[in-house]
Design brief:
About 5% of the residues lie in helices and about 60% in strands. By secondary structure, the protein is an all-beta fold. The protein has a single domain, classed as Beta Barrel (Porin), CATH 2.40.160. The strands form two sheets. It has a 15-stranded antiparallel sheet with strand order 5-6-7-8-9-10-11-12-13-14-15-16-17-18-19, with helices on one face. The protein has a four-stranded antiparallel sheet with strand order 1-2-3-4, with no helix packed on it.
């Protein structure tokens, strides 16, 4: 089993609860294209409920003879001109080498993976400098990880988190403690060939608020379509439908409802094309 990155310890449950619910965005579009010389382009756009719009563009070149890939420009807003290159070193060590315009920032990212370890380090060389590192160790499905941020100029830790989990082919569970170990979350995810089910409970020790709960399910209707539904402890429910129209083209429909205010106009319905 591959050891996930720290941010992905509870990815299965988080994806089930958060992805494909199209009501979260008023409109989205994603276009992918490949050129004959192995350059892949992806353009995305999004319009929010507040009428704000944003766009991003990404280009990658794959050198199949060397097994390397170069990011021509990373996923970012189209107004940004920061460029960076990604090279693979020794098979399991990844080094991000940036080249940037003045005042845009210089960042260096490192990743190291082995069969029972996954470590990452993110450096902002002009801001601070600052460093964010995380690491996960695993054995027979059991995982334990931690992350921390450090500001060199202030000589101070800027934040830290921890997590434990268990991953098996058909189910996973995780407990995370973020925001300096003040926000706790427990998640569970189970899957078979047709149905996925998951739940997440969250508690903020600083605010002393009640435990928040979300449950979700995904049902595969056929090989090209699926439906999802979720509801939280506040009575807000969401449903979605996704169908593959043809290779590379999908249609998504989503809606949310406040079950405690069905008579009020608080509901959202959206369509997404990718």
């Amino acid at each position: 089993m591959s050891i996930p990155a720290f941010a992905d310890i509870s990815k299965s449950a988080n994806d089930l609860l958060n992805k494909d619910f199209y009501h979260l965005s008023a409109g989205t579009i994603e276009v992918k294209s490949n050129t004959p010389n192995n350059v892949a382009f992806k353009v995305t756009g999004k319009s929010s409920h507040e009428k704000a719009t944003s766009g991003a563009i990404e280009g990658k070149y794959a050198d199949k003879s060397l097994g390397n890939s170069t990011t021509i420009f990373p996923t970012q807003t189209i107004k940004s001109h920061t460029k960076r290159r990604q090279a693979r070193i020794k098979g399991r060590v990844y080094l991000l080498l940036p080249t940037c315009h003045p005042k845009k920032g210089v960042k260096l990212n490192l990743t190291f993976k082995q069969s029972a370890f996954h470590g990452r380090a993110f450096f902002d060389l002009l801001k601070g400098p600052t460093a964010n590192v995380d690491a996960v160790i695993g054995h027979e499905g059991f995982l334990a990880g931690a992350s921390a941020g450090y500001d060199v100029q202030k000589a101070a830790v800027t934040g830290y988190s921890a997590a434990v989990g268990y991953i098996a082919p058909q189910y996973s569970a995780a407990i995370t403690a973020t925001d300096n170990l003040s926000v706790f979350a427990a998640s569970y995810h189970k899957v078979n060939s047709q149905v996925e089910a998951g739940a997440k409970a969250t508690w903020n020790s600083k605010s002393g608020s009640a435990v928040g709960l979300e449950v979700a399910s995904k049902y595969r209707l056929d090989p090209v379509s699926f439906a999802k539904a979720k509801i939280n402890d506040r009575g807000v429910a969401a449903v979605s439908y996704n169908v593959l129209l043809r290779p590379g083209v999908t249609l998504g429909l989503g809606a949310s409802f406040d079950t405690q205010k069905l008579e009020q106009a608080t509901h959202k319905v959206r369509i997404s094309d990718t």
